[in-house]
Amino acid sequence: MEQTKSTKKKRSRRQTSEMLQGYGFLIPAGVIAAIFFIYAVVFAVYMSFNKVNMLTNNYSWNNFQNYINIFSDPTVKIALENTLGFVAIVVPCQTIISLVIAYVLSSRGVKGKSIFRLIYFLPTLTSSAALTLIFMFLFNVNGPINQLFIGMGLYHTPINFLNEPFWSMKVIVAMNIWSTVPFYMTIYLASLVDLPYSLYEAAMIDGASAWQRLRYITVPYLRPITTYVLLTGIIGTFQMFDQAYIFSGGTGGPSNSTLTLALLIYQYATTGLGSGIGYAAAIAVLLGILIFVVSRIAEKLNGGLAK
């Protein structure tokens, strides 16, 4: 009996020691998170209730005025519509396309899978700024895309993709889908490796088609991965800034067609429009809430569809 108590005490001490060691390893990351995330969020919320003059470091409390101004600001409405449209197109497309490509490449009998994986993954190795410049070159009035389509007889007059409001955001959408699909495809491929092929064999014996195998075996099995893809995709697309900034030179043009909420926050914070950085902080807070709400909705929908 005494030996059992002694063993339990030693085990408890060892567990306590391991726990303290674990917390010790977490302290550096916790300090960094506290400084650069928690403090930044709290300070941004505080600034959103102030009219801030960064030159004089003067904070003037104005209650909810910044938030009230947001709902009467037509530029915020345009940026919100552009952002929501961007998210609504890019996230489903990048999720579905990456899943289908991963499913095809994981199938038996497909030759040259390693080469295809390498080719598909190459865009991920390129920086976002470089990709934006490449697409601006491709879709230039005298660029390869116009020359190709004119050569194919699809149209006769070059389209000014970069400077026409109807086309400008569509180019950014195409670029984002093309550049993000390889990353998510790799994640799906890594998960499909662990999916027992015997499930597919049993389904094929029962006469299940390729679509039925994808719908009733692959998709439910990959539900946790799809949740991750959806959440990271939503967060990334809502925060899209660099492509729109480079594409429009920071203006959000042409005619605000590429103006996103992230770019608008930058404009208000750096130009002093509205109430300056306090107003920009208020938009940032609402953007964070919007990302959280949409992410939760997508997570619930993914859970419902997988059942």
Count of spatially separate domains: 2
Strand content: under 5%
Annotation, overall tally of beta strands: 2
The helix content, as a percent range, equals over 70%
Which features would summarize this protein structure in a list?
307 residues, MetI-like_sf, mainly alpha, two-stranded antiparallel sheet, MetI-like fold, 2 domains
Explain how this protein is built.
By secondary structure, this protein is an all-alpha fold. The protein has two domains: 2-47; 69-306, MetI-like (MetI-like fold, Orthogonal Bundle). It is 74% helix and 3% strand. The protein is built from 13 helices and two strands, in the order αββαααααααααααα. It has helices spanning 2-47, 65-70, 74-106, 113-121, 128-138, 144-151, 165-192, 197-205, 210-221, 223-238, 242-248, 261-271, 277-306; strands at residues 50-53, 58-61. Strands 1-2 form a two-stranded antiparallel sheet. α3 packs parallel to α7 (165-192) and α10 (223-238) runs antiparallel to α13 (277-306). The longest helix has 46 residues, at 2-47.
